[in-house]
Amino acid sequence: MSLFSLTLVLISAAMHAGWNLLVRDQRRINMFMGITVVSVIIFCAPLLLLEFFTAPVFSVVPLNIVFGGAFLAVYYFGMTHSYRGGDFTVAYPLSRALPVLLVACVEVASGEAPTPLGWLGIVLIALGSALAPLQSLHELKLARYWNRTTAWVLLAAFAIASYTVIDRAALRQLPNGLLFAMRYGVLESVVGGILYWLALLALRESFTLPTRLADWKLPVVTTLFIFGSYSLILWAFQSDDRASYVIGLRQISIVLGVAIGAYWFHERGARLRVPAALIIVVGVILLSVA
Q1: pTM for this one?
Q2: Residues 48, 266: Cα–Cα separation, whole Å
Q3: Where residue 162 falls among pLDDT bands split at 50, 70, 90?
Q4: Please, is 252 exposed, middle or buried when counting C-beta atoms within 10 Å of its C-beta (0-12, 13-18, 19+)?
Q5: Are 192 and 72 in contact (CB under 8 A)?
């Protein structure tokens, strides 16, 4: 992987860890809806102007935006139910680790299989991500991973892998550059948010939005972090051939989360989480040189 792509992914990982820490105590269904509202209000008008007066994005890859947005809505839905029915510290790492393996398998089917060194890095990242939620080896039990939330975690992981493959294909059709990556990411997020909102209405799921202007500060900051983080990943898709390497390297955000959680929030389980984080680091190093 080029130094340029590596730098983009590492900055993205830091931003990704940052927004997850910002919303760690929030009710997830409300968070996703807050992000949707902010996206529509802040970004729609500038996007429409850019679509009309500069090189278009939507008309070039309309199906990618629509289907990518649909899978983004599925991801929101899967993660909402994962958080609601289970342990966030298990659901989140698994939902991020499994797509790395799934995207690698898609690349094998498309004739762009990772190298042996790349496979080793991917497996180590997935292993470290699976171990990161545990506080001791005594918790290494099947029930810890296979429970009533497993189906929702698998759904979220499938959605991440799906929109990753779709996004990578789209960005290779667009002009290179951060602006086009950002525009694509915002368009996809707006579509995904609207579809998620329609799904909540259809299923009569309840959600609440901030009523005071001051309470919108967190959704706004979180939205900017999310779009900034994923825009860098989309830009990296234009610079690197293997999406599995890009999203695999991004899991260094789990390491950052473990470190900040232990130092800032005094979370227990450092004896196992530190080795798990080191396993991820080794995997990241292997991917960076694969």
Answers
A1: 0.83
A2: 45
A3: very high
A4: buried
A5: yes
